[in-house]
Amino acid sequence: MRILITGPMGYVGPVLTRHLRKALPSAELIGFDSGYFAHNLTAAATLPETRLDRLHFGDIRRFPAELLDGVDAVVHLAAISNDPMGTEFESVTEAINERASIALARMAAERGVKNFVFASSCSIYGAAEGGPRREGDPLNPLTAYARSKVAMENALRSHNAGNMTVTCLRFATACGMSDRLRLDLVLNDFVANALASKEISVLSDGSPWRPLIDVSDMARAIEWAISRCADNGGDVLLVNVGSTNGNYQVKELAEVVAAELPGTKVSINRDAPPDKRSYQVDFSLFAKLAPSHVPATPIAQSVRNLCTGLATMNFSDRDFRDSALMRLRTLKGHIANERLTADLFWQ
Predict the structure, then answer these.
(1) Counting beta carbons within 10 angstroms of the beta carbon of residue 223, is it exposed (0 to 12), middle (13 to 18) or buried (19 or more)?
(2) Is residue 31 a part of any domain in this protein?
């Protein structure tokens, strides 16, 4: 099996390639990445991309179609990957997450790719009251990032994919340790705060709901989707990926971290305006379709793994929100040093 992974040099990619190398040892793994975050290694003993058979550098907006020749499955991770970056680079988010991604899927179908796996997001539910959201419930994307995920899903549903089986994995909010750790994710941020200052500052009133999933469980879900047959979910499947017991209010997440790190003080900004991004999610469809690939890592274990990884890094930076561990800071640093243009092309 030949698998092409876009964006393998991000947060999810190193964990995914490690998992696939073990789960599918005979597979040929090919990577395609812009390299924005290639240098942001965290507690990595080796370069994670040594697990790939080949790695191509390039911009997804200029993807060379010939790389798809002979490819059995595409895992599309490449994206402007969170709300702050989407707000700062809204037009680029549309260009990469939407237009270039749709073009990639069409090229894949034309080149005979059997399975196309798209990393979507539960953030598309936005402000969602009335209980956990199911796949058929209305969407309410509140950010450029979430809107781009909806646009890609809609294109995949409407486009005639021929014989290509398409799986849109609507992931819960990612968390956990990686060889390219991000601290601009809620649980990771809380752990870093607790380790650096013995305090967790919840910037909202703590009431919003978020579903969480460890990055290792994201990798397991992708492995399932790579070989999914159309008779298990249909030609184009949109499915929430996470676990029912992974739905937490933000203040509950802070309490989980504090319980794992005794002596941590939790402060909540009860005067903060309500965060409209609040949603619980129903993951029963994924459990039905992929019972052997449901998330297996409890949040407390994700916290412990983060603590171990950050300790290996000798992490103690109270100002980490101004560091390269925040993806937006990395991009702004590239631009400030004239390595990237304002629309995120390499100079």
Answers:
(1) buried
(2) yes
Closest CA to 267 of 250, 243, 288, 242: 250
In a domain, 236, yes or no: yes
Per the structure, the complete domain to which residue 112 belongs is given by 2-178+212-244+278-296
| SS3 assignment, position 266 | strand
Cα-based angle 33, 176, 117 (whole degrees, multiple of 5): 45
In a domain, 314, yes or no: no
C-alpha distance across the termini of the chain, in Å: 36
- Residue 315, classified by CB atoms within 10 Å of its CB into exposed (0-12), middle (13-18) or buried (19+), is buried
Nearest to 32 by CA among 73, 70, 76, 84: 76
Pick from 193, 321, 211: which is nearest to 267 by CA? 193
Does residue 191 form part of some domain?
A: no
Antiparallel, parallel or unpaired: β 173-175 and 165-171:
unpaired
CATH number of the domain at 15, please: 3.40.50.720
Mean pLDDT of 183-193: 96
Rounded to whole angstroms, the Cα distance separating 169 from 213 reads 12
Read off the pTM: 0.96
Do residues 254 and 266 make contact, with C-beta atoms less than 8 angstroms apart? yes
**Helix or strand holding residue 55 (H, E):** strand 54-57
Nearest to 62 by CA among 89, 95, 37: 95
Over residues 9-57, the pLDDT tens digits come to 999 999 999 999 999 999 999 999 999 999 999 999 999 999 999 999 9
Model confidence pLDDT, tens digit, residues 115-165: 999 999 999 999 888 789 999 999 999 999 999 999 999 999 987 656 899
- CA–CA separation, 152 and 79 (whole Å): 11
Number of domains into which the chain is organized? 1
